[in-house]
Amino acid sequence: MTVNGRIRVLESISEVKPTTNPYLTQLVEALRARNDTKVELFSFSRAILGRYDVFHVHWPEVTFGGAKPVGRFARRLLTELLMLRLSLTRTPVVRTWHNTERPQGLTRWDYRLLDLFDKHTESVIRLNDVSQPTLDVPVHTVPLGHYREWFAGYPRADPVAGRVSYIGLIRRYKGVEALIHAFRGVETPAATLCISGRPSNPVLAETLRVMSNEDGRIRLRFDFLDDGEFVSEITAASLVVLPFVHMHNSSTVLAALSLERRVLVPDNDVNRRLALEVGDGWIHLYRGELDATDLERALAGSHPSEAPRFRLRDWNDSARLHLKAFSEAARLDR
Predict the structure, then answer these.
(1) pTM of the model
(2) 233 and 318 both lie in a single domain
(3) What is d(CA 40, CA 36) in angstroms, rounded to the nearest whole number?
């Protein structure tokens, strides 16, 4: 059922605040700007007792996760009730397929809850046309949106010649150690490396400090960056390097391109297709382990004369394509 011709969507995020992933914030805002969609944010009371046509889920494990054991136990029980409610009301789940694999290290109860989310999923939204979701349900492709409007109000820095930058959360799988190791062999005159972001744990932070100590060209900034600082760090770079071990969907790549900075990323199907989309010179690819030659080659490239081209990455397009997936899952004709 709809209300006044509007499909009712319950999003799995509970609030939108300054630290919320801009991808989620822009999606919610774009959906709410439409006159055929009513969007509510998640709470267990709303999810179990409220009325909605579709439950849109990003990371299911967040629903029942938590830092404290008592809170996790309560959320697991409430998630069981939510699954029962979805079953009784035959309310579909639409999943955005952010990751290629399930999270590791969860309990048997958690994996059972993930199985229940899978059971109730009627449709999957993938963020590129390479991803192959493992569920046997209809699949909709909705490309990651750009960040041009999101960052438009922030001042930009002039690019510093020779500056290589990594910006974002620092985790083991993001390859920052490999980046430092490769950069220490770079011989490009005036080359510098700036790493900005919050490490996932103190051990990783100390490892990076030790690796950087002997090279005065490397600067570490272990802080959470607000949007203004994020824009400043990216735009001060001549080259943004994202050496993720397994790169599938990266908002940081889209952010750097939206701010018109060149990127160096692993050579895979997703990045090759993105390189064709945005145009020559914006995306540099490397194969195998990142090394100094890869960095020197990308640094030697010239800045493209035209801005990156984006296809179906405007948030109005994203909202329209999401609505199509929601409507089909709810078996509504639009």
Answers:
(1) 0.89
(2) no
(3) 14
